[in-house]
Write a structure and sequence with these properties.
single chain; 272 residues; alpha+beta; 4 helices; signal
């Protein structure tokens, strides 16, 4: 009996040692959620400012260069936390999916749309036109826009014991919609680029972009990033960015349509 008890205690002790060793060499999943892929839900979240992080807009840049004066660009974004993992070094690594909507539209059409939206808001006793727009959901065939781009930037990040922010690009998904058939895309790219030191201390400056041309409107394009691991985004001038960039043409004019999501805590200017 005493021998059996001794053997049981030895087995329990060995089991505890093995469990501790496993925990020390394997990351622990703290949180995991199913990704929202429905554009209606994502559009509503972005329109109403709903996000799993403090602010999307600070990291989000959208612009239109050399465009006609009546053309404007609008941006919305929402971020989902997909997973949190406790690393073997004790730091918590978080996996994100940021979906950003970049909308190119004609101001003249937008004035008419705003008037009808306000009228609808009044009829339904809704105070905010934004809430009305969000409640409409994502309409792929909405003709009040000229070109729309929807992109999702997948990335992971963590802060180490020295509060350094490390970011790793994972994947970029992109989709384009067109309501104005007179506008075409003559060049396009989507993907990610980065500049900085990785966790091995190696200086890395590289980009990974895909060209979707000839483009199928409404088709989902995916670029799984061939990255250099985690990049230090705290050092001045270092960054990780997910981007889409297009050259649009209409008649004899052309302009650049850009949207990107940037990480770089000490950036004096965005990457060109």
């Amino acid at each position: 009996m005493r021998k059996s008890l001794t053997m049981l205690l030895v087995l329990v002790f060995i089991s505890l040692i093995c469990t501790q060793a496993f925990a020390a060499t394997n990351p622990e999943v703290i949180l995991e959620k199913e990704e929202i892929k429905d554009l209606n839900i994502l559009w509503q979240r972005a329109s109403c400012g709903v996000s799993d992080i403090k602010s999307d807009i600070d990291n989000f840049r959208a612009e239109l260069k050399n465009a006609p004066v009546n053309m404007v660009v609008e941006k919305k974004a929402t971020t989902q936390i997909l997973k949190k993992v406790k690393r073997t070094d004790g730091n918590v690594e978080t996996y994100y999916a940021t979906t950003f909507f970049t909308i190119l539209k004609d101001k003249d059409k937008d004035v008419k749309k705003s008037a009808s939206t306000l009228k609808l808001a009044s009829l339904n006793s809704v105070k905010s036109p934004i809430m009305v727009a969000a409640s409409k959901g994502w309409d792929e065939y909405d003709d009040s826009y000229s070109i729309r781009h929807v992109g999702t930037f997948y990335y992971s990040s963590y802060r180490d014991s020295n509060t350094i922010l490390w970011v790793r690009p994972e994947k970029v998904e992109a989709k384009w919609y067109r309501a104005d058939s007179s506008v075409s895309i003559s060049s396009s790219r989507y993907g990610a680029e980065w500049l900085g030191y990785n966790t091995s201390g190696k200086w890395c400056g590289r980009e990974d972009y895909s060209n979707p041309l000839p483009m199928s409107w409404g088709k989902l394009y995916t670029n799984t990033i061939s990255n250099d691991g985690y990049i230090n985004c705290t050092v001045a001038g270092c960054y990780v960015v997910g981007e889409q960039r297009d050259t649009l043409t209409r008649g004899g004019s052309s302009w650049e349509f850009l949207s990107c999501y940037l990480f770089g805590e000490n950036m004096s200017a965005w990457p060109s």
